[in-house]
Design goal:
Helix content: 55-70%
Number of helices: 14
CATH topology of the largest domain: Fic-like fold
CATH superfamily of the largest domain: Fido-like domain
CATH class of the largest domain: Mainly Alpha
Largest sheet: 3 strands, antiparallel
Structural class: mainly alpha
Strand order of the largest sheet: 6-5-9
Order of helices and strands: HHHHHEEEEHHHHHHEEHHHEEE
Shape: globular
Strand content: 5-15%
């Protein structure tokens, strides 16, 4: 299949290669924070973007945070590093062992989940880290329907089929990396092989496939979660509800998801191109969004905070030459947007928005 806008984005990206060490480091840092934050936030992790950056880059946390969320985010980053290392071994075929190990890395150990049932009855079950599910799993769609995934009994065979299919298709080379990744993601989700963490594994595997084929890695943004889930749902309607059919779906069967996925990949690559190539003092980036400030004073304040984290409002006022009330108003707006935050009692600033320069 031909995807003109995607091909154009890839051509623009390839013109930038090879990236300088500095650009590569900036992109890698940006992706690490964005991916971990969004993939976990989609699943309910409550750490903010700023908390995620401080935790992953400096091992610190600011403000209130649940221990579970901190552990989950830390484990997610270990899983991301593990995925990148595995993707570099391109001569090695994909294995179920790797997927199970990735799951074990994310969840670390078995844990018990408690659920309150109607009538006040409490039930519990164990989430097995690194093991395929031992109980049926399903989801209630936003339309109120229960959608069943593959049964525990058929999961091992379906996963064997999925991994074998992937390795064979990769050798054949008839599907593009984007088609391979989209189809793998969809088939995997229809199996839902683990009791928890399937979405996070699916998004890691998409980037595993991209990294193996020298494509830029992508982020499914949590602010667009409904668009992501709706694309999967529309593909489910087209494919049908039988799990084994979903686990063997073809490209023509998942067109609603494929259309969404191509758009997502195109947007992410275009943003990578702009992030690397655009140089404008008033353009900044925050969680995959290009922020253009109308007033240069925002950039002056942010640069002052980046240069000297302990800078005071009086220092800023003297440096940029506007009155104190205007400084306070601009700083408050940056705080409200969560672009900056004070991180200790001394009043040090932490800037979470990234300059394009």
């Amino acid at each position: 299949m031909k995807y003109a806008t995607l091909e154009k984005a890839l051509a623009a990206w390839n013109k930038l290669l090879p990236l300088s060490e500095d650009d590569n480091n900036k992109l890698s840092r940006r992706f690490t924070i964005d991916f971990n934050y969004n993939s976990n936030n989609i699943e309910g992790n409550t750490l903010t973007y700023g908390q995620t950056e401080l935790l992953l880059m400096f091992g610190k946390i600011i403000g209130e945070a649940q221990v579970k969320d901190i552990q989950e985010m830390t484990a997610s980053n270990v899983g991301l590093k593990m995925m990148k290392e595995e993707a570099e071994m391109k001569e090695m075929p994909l294995s179920q062992h790797f997927i199970r190990t990735l799951h074990k890395t994310l969840f670390r150990e078995d844990y018990t989940v408690y659920r309150n049932l109607p009538g006040g009855v409490t039930t519990s079950f164990i989430i097995h880290a690194g093991q395929y599910k031992t109980r049926p799993n399903s989801v209630i769609t936003r339309y109120g329907d229960r959608f069943e995934y593959a049964s525990p009994e058929e999961t091992p065979a379906l996963m064997t089929s999925l991994v074998d299919w992937y390795n064979e298709e990769e050798k054949r080379g008839k599907l593009s990396p984007v088609e391979l990744a989209a189809l793998f993601h969809y088939r995997y989700i229809r199996i839902h092989p683990f009791e928890d963490g399937n979405g996070r594994i699916a998004r890691l595997m998409v980037n595993f496939i991209f990294a193996r084929h020298n494509y830029p890695m992508i982020v499914v943004r949590s602010r667009k979660k409904q668009e992501y889930l709706e694309a999967l749902h529309q593909a489910d309607l087209k494919v049908g509800s039988v799990p084994s059919e979903g686990a063997n779906a073809d490209l023509k069967d998942i067109q609603p998801f494929m259309k969404y996925f191509v758009g997502l990949v195109t947007e992410e690559i275009n943003n990578d191109v702009r992030f690397v190539s655009e140089h404008d003092e008033n353009v900044w980036w925050y969680d995959g969004e290009r922020i253009v400030f109308r007033s240069e004073n925002y950039s002056k304040i942010l640069n002052a905070m980046l240069s000297l984290p302990t800078v005071t409002l009086n220092d800023i006022q003297k440096e940029i030459g506007i009155n104190m009330s205007a400084v306070q108003r601009l700083v408050n707006q940056l705080i409200e947007k969560k672009y900056v935050e004070r991180i200790d009692n001394k009043g040090s600033w932490r800037v979470f928005i990234t300059p394009s320069l």
